[in-house]
Automatic annotation (TrEMBL):
Keyword rRNA-binding attributed: no
Subcellular location: Bacterial flagellum basal body
NCBIfam families assigned: fliE
Organism name: Litorilituus lipolyticus
Top-level taxon in the UniProt lineage: Bacteria
Keywords (A to Z) from UniProt: Bacterial flagellum, Cell projection, Cilium, Flagellum
GO molecular function: cytoskeletal motor activity; structural molecule activity
Gene Ontology cellular-component terms listed: bacterial-type flagellum basal body
InterPro entries noted in UniProt: FliE
Record protein name field: Flagellar hook-basal body complex protein FliE
Record bears the keyword Hydrolase: no
Organism lineage string: Bacteria, Pseudomonadati, Pseudomonadota, Gammaproteobacteria, Alteromonadales
PANTHER family per the UniProt record, alphabetical: FLAGELLAR HOOK-BASAL BODY COMPLEX PROTEIN FLIE, PTHR34653
Gene Ontology BP term (one): bacterial-type flagellum-dependent cell motility
Length: 117
C-alpha cells in the first residue's frame, strides 16, 4: 500500500487540530482537574488524546465490519454484500495505516536511541 507523504501529513494535521479543539473545550469545562503534567506540557496530552481517538476509531471500524459480516452471513436482508465489502475495505485500510504509523514510531525511537549523548 502506497500512502503519499503530503496527504498523510495533511490528514494528521487535520486530526491534530480536531483533537486540540476537543481537549481545549474539556480543559475549559473542568480546569480544576488538570494535573501539573498537563499544565507543564499540554501538547503531550493532546497528542496522546489524538492517538487514543485514532485507535478507538480503527477499533470501531473493525467491529462494524465484523458485525456486518456476521449479519450478512446470517441472512439479514438489510445488509448487502457491497456494504460488507466497503466496511471490510475501510477497516483494512485503517489497520494498514495504523501499522505504518506504528512502524514510523518504532523507527524514530530506534533512531533517537542510537544518537550519541
Amino acid at each position: 500500500m502506497d500512502i503519499k507523504g503530503n496527504s498523510l501529513y495533511a490528514q494528521m494535521q487535520t486530526m491534530s487540530l480536531q483533537a486540540m479543539g476537543q481537549s481545549t473545550t474539556a480543559i475549559n469545562a473542568d480546569s480544576a482537574s488538570i494535573d501539573s503534567v498537563n499544565k507543564a506540557n499540554p501538547s503531550s496530552s493532546n497528542f496522546g488524546n489524538m492517538l487514543t481517538d485514532a485507535l478507538k476509531t480503527v477499533n470501531e471500524l473493525q467491529q462494524e465490519a465484523g458485525d456486518k459480516k456476521a449479519a450478512f452471513e446470517m441472512g439479514d436482508r438489510n445488509v448487502s454484500l457491497a456494504e460488507v465489502m466497503i466496511a471490510s475495505s475501510k477497516s483494512g485500510i485503517a489497520l494498514d495505516a495504523t501499522v505504518q504509523v506504528r512502524n514510523k514510531f518504532v523507527e524514530a525511537y530506534k533512531e533517537i536511541m542510537s544518537m550519541p549523548v
